[in-house]
Amino acid sequence: MEVGCMVSGSILLYGTVGSTLNGLLTGSLYGLMALGLTLIFRVTRIANFAYAEYITYAGYAAFAATAALAGGAGGAVLFAAGLLAAALVGAVASLLSDELAFKPLWHRGADPLTLLVASMGVAFVMRYSLLGLAVSANWPLQVQPMVGNPVLATIGGLSYISGAHVAAITAAVATAAAMHLLFTRTKTGKAMRATASNPVLARISGIDIYYIRRLTWLLAGAIGGLAGFLYSYYNPLNPETGWQVLLWIFAAAIMGGFTFYGALVSGIILGLAESLASFYLNTFFGIDTAYSPVIALIALVLVLLFRPEGVIRLEAHMLRRRA
Amino acid sequence: MVAFEGILAQWLTYFAIYGIMALSFNIEYGFTGIPNFGKVMFVAIGAYAAGILASTLVLSLAAPALGIHVASQSGPAYCSGAAKQVFSGAVQVLPTTTLFAIFLASVIAAAAAGAATSIVASFPALRLREDFLAITLLAAGEILRLVTWTSVWPVCSFNGISGIPSPFAHYLGRADVLYAALAMLFLLLAWLYTDYATNSPWGRALKAVRDDDVAAEVYGYNVAKVRAESLLVGSALAGVAGALLVFYSGNVNAATYRPDMTFEVIAAVILGGAANNVGALLGAAVISGLLIFMNPSSLEALGITLPRAVMDALPYLKYVIIGIVILLVLMYRPQGLVPEKPLKTPLVEKTREKLRRYLEQLGRQGAGDS
Fold first, then answer.
1. Euclidean distance between CA atoms A309 and A306, whole angstroms
2. What is the pLDDT along chain B (370 residues), one digit of tens a residue?
3. How far is residue A144 from each of residues A49, A132, B68, B90, B189, measured CA to CA in Å?
4. Is A153 exposed, middle or buried (0-12, 13-18, 19+ CB in 10 A)?
């Protein structure tokens, strides 16, 4: 009896530790992905459904780059190559989708809903052309960059901290801080904010709004690409992965009220809630873990219904000492 | 020839189902300005309601006659293995009239379930900006799909309910053509109703709310009520489309109701022209045609052969085409193929008639003078 209690107690303990670590990993990935979406929304006011596809394309690019180099190069080189390829492809995909679809529509004075529908169109074209190509050219339908994910520490033999944990959390925190500083402390960030609030006035004031717009899309795509690489570093990625996480990304971005730190914190909260709630509900009530995605979706719907302006809005003035 | 007839029947059935969905989306999006991007949720609700009612009725009517005892330890009775036997044997014991009655009852139940669920959507529709409303409804649809995919209630999780007998199960040779005709009849009724409703004072209220809800409120329209009514009608129609899909394919499965279906309907309405019922139908005909004809099996049946690589990519290629169509229409013809027409109102017609008579009189006077 006592032994049984101890065993179940330790399972509970290690399960909690493992779910927390997992939640931190997926949560910081959601947060990182949400940063790019937030950047696009803040500068261009587009709720961009095609953003998910930049992540997928980047994951495939990382796979292709590492597969081409595998064998001859060392682990660090492969990691760097995968990351670079992913960021590059993400940025280019993002910029191209703006130049070909969103910018022409914006010139015609499209409203936010039209731009949203257009982004769904872009997402359809990107996702299904990748799927079609993958099927007809016999590409693998699940890819993972050929970089080993080293186990750095093991806890109780059950849960472990891997390279992906460290990389994802570091990247998410660093990117959020960098974006926040860019937006609040630099001239470029100021130009971005000016372009967002009044493009005509920004242009009159001598800001090259087209350069700012291109920079925004490149940066957002690169963030998406980075996230895509880190995601596939840990989980295999398929042509529909982007779409499958898109609503989580939206949930994090909207919960964060489209602020950078807010998006990061919301992403981590969602990731933790997803993994911890599904672990506890499964352990104590026998509820299927397949329901866990529903948690983030319900959070998204509730936030939109009751606090559409966001729950966690960590803006500059809230963080600075003097108000 | 038979193959061609079969594919034509398939297209007409899909056209009818997508046409009803497009009409319903058009009422909400085109006329009232509510972007109901959770359309597939209401279609799924209708399909689930129809599937549950039909399978329960078939079980209770056919199981005693077949001498099969249906019991289940966990989950609904219609999910059990014995129920599958009943479904496959039901055609032998149930006459066409009974099957038809089951079909009609299920369609009515689907419409009622869709309408009842619309209350859920009308809550966010009052509070949110258009693009956020779209995301909310999309997420709600995904919640429904994920839950019903996992839970044995209401539609047997990922197994779904299969083998629901079609009302024309006794006419094995030409069941598909008969069903296509029946579906087209429903489409005709839906179109007549929608056209009548949107050209009535109620239709004008919808447009007033869409164009400027503050102005509409000032003129005495109850904006909340108008929006809720628009969603109610749209969702009831979506439920009917779901029921028609169930009796066509014979099964209900959560995997069918992916958000892609919503995008197909959005593409149909945007292509055809928002706030124009004929346009919505035209768009639905094109999109359902794409869905049916861009299928390896349809092309093979028609005797068209393409390289293997193209054939493999076809099921995905059709969505690439739908995406390109959405983008091109938004860029070069945002009003759609058939643009919105001015309102057909008795007032305008009467005024025009008066004006014509007045001009005729003037002309006669002019002739008399000279």
1. 9
2. 567 788 899 999 999 999 999 999 999 999 999 999 999 999 999 999 999 999 989 888 887 777 777 776 677 878 877 788 888 888 888 888 899 999 999 999 999 999 999 988 888 877 787 888 888 899 999 999 999 988 877 878 888 888 888 888 888 778 889 999 999 999 999 999 999 999 888 998 999 999 988 898 898 889 889 999 999 999 999 999 999 999 999 889 988 999 999 999 999 999 998 888 999 999 999 999 999 988 888 888 787 888 888 888 888 999 999 999 999 999 999 888 888 877 666 666 777 888 888 888 888 877 666 5
3. 23, 19, 51, 49, 52
4. exposed
Task: Count CB atoms within 10 A of the CB of residue B278.
Answer: 14
What is the DSSP code (8-state) at residue B319? H
**Which residues in chain A are contacts of B325 at CB distance < 8 A?**
121
Q: 10 Å Cβ neighbour count for A317?
A: 9
Task: Give yes or no for a contact between A78 and A93, defined as CB atoms under 8 angstroms apart.
Answer: no
Angstrom CA distances, B10 to A233, B164, B184, B200, B336, stand at 44, 18, 11, 34, 26
Q: Which residue is closest to A294 within chain B, CA to CA?
A: B143
Q: Which residue has the tokens 């995301």?
A: B135
| Bridge partners of residue A155, in order along the sequence | A159
Q: Which of B27, B49, B45, B25 is nearest to B36 (CA)?
A: B25
Whether the upstream peptide bond of residue B154 has omega within 30° of 0, thus cis, is yes
Structure tokens at B188: 């005709």
User: Does B323 contact A108 at a Cβ distance shorter than 8 Å?
Assistant: no
Highest CATH level, class, for B2-339: mainly alpha
- For chain B, give percent helix, strand, coil, nearest 5: 80, 0, 20
Q: Is the CB of A300 less than 8 angstroms away from the CB of B263?
A: no
From A108, which residue of chain B is nearest by alpha-carbon distance? B331
CA distances from B36 to A6, A154, B118, B124, B355 (A): 52, 48, 10, 11, 41
Query: What distance in Å separates the CA atoms of residue B370 and residue A72, rounded to the nearest whole number?
Result: 103
Contact assessment for residue A222 and residue A91, using Cβ atoms and an 8 Å cutoff: yes
Helix, strand, or coil here: A237?
strand
Q: From the CA atom positions of chain A, what is the Rg in Å?
A: 21
Sign of the Cα torsion A283, A287, A290, A293 reads: negative
Cα B170 from Cα B201, distance rounded (Å): 45
pTM score, whole prediction:
0.88
How is chain B split into domains, by residue range?
2-339, 345-370
Q: Are B274 and A111 in contact (CB under 8 A)?
A: no
Q: Strand B161-162 relative to strand A159-162: parallel, antiparallel, unpaired?
A: unpaired
**What CATH code is assigned to A2-319?**
1.10.3470
Whether B124 and A305 lie within 8 Å, measured CB to CB = yes
Mutate to test the interface with A, among B210, B331, B333 (most CBs of A within 10 A): B331
> Which residues of A are less than 8 Å from B210 in CB distance?
none
- Interface confidence (ipTM) of the complex: 0.86
Q: Which amino acid is at A49?
A: F
- Which of B28, B32, B120, B327 to mutate against chain A (most A CBs within 10 Å)? B327
Contact B135 A250 (CB under 8 A): yes
Report the residue from B142, B323, B326 with minimal CB separation from A247.
B142
